Amino acid sequence: MRRVCGWCKDNLDPELGHEADAPVTHGICSSCALKITTGTSRSAREMLDLVEEPVFLLGEDGVLHAVNRSGCRLVGKDADSIADQLLGDVFECVNAGLPGGCGASIHCSMCTMRTTLLETLKTGKGTSCLPATKNINAPDGEREVHFLISTEKVDGKILMRIEAVEPAEQANN
């Protein structure tokens, strides 16, 4: 799999070459990251909206700083209603409703999304298409959802991109 910048399309892993038929995942190059995190005529939200897949920009405390339109559609909420919330609350993780909230239960230590975000923040090393499962509260009750997530550290924040989503019943077929 090759990684390209979701904004300028530059190859992020030049040592891996440019295999035209290799599957592509997206990250962000340092030039584009600077444009997002410094004063530009575009807001972070406008920059994130340029990426087709759902993208979430999270602070080191796990709090949502920005989300693109695709991310809003994925969680079924508008950006203003989920701003400054923890990721588990944004996704309505069943464990976020336990005492202490998101990040405080024994289940949170096994959450792939959480551990991946923390590891990317700590090491600066991004991930690509990592499988993650989350039990969420849905209108029709609790359900298990499978994700493929990619992360990238940008100026002390984490960009998390959702590459694919499928309900558990589809993932097992």
Automatic annotation (TrEMBL):
It comes from Candidatus Polarisedimenticola svalbardensis. It comes from the Bacteria. This is PAS domain-containing protein.
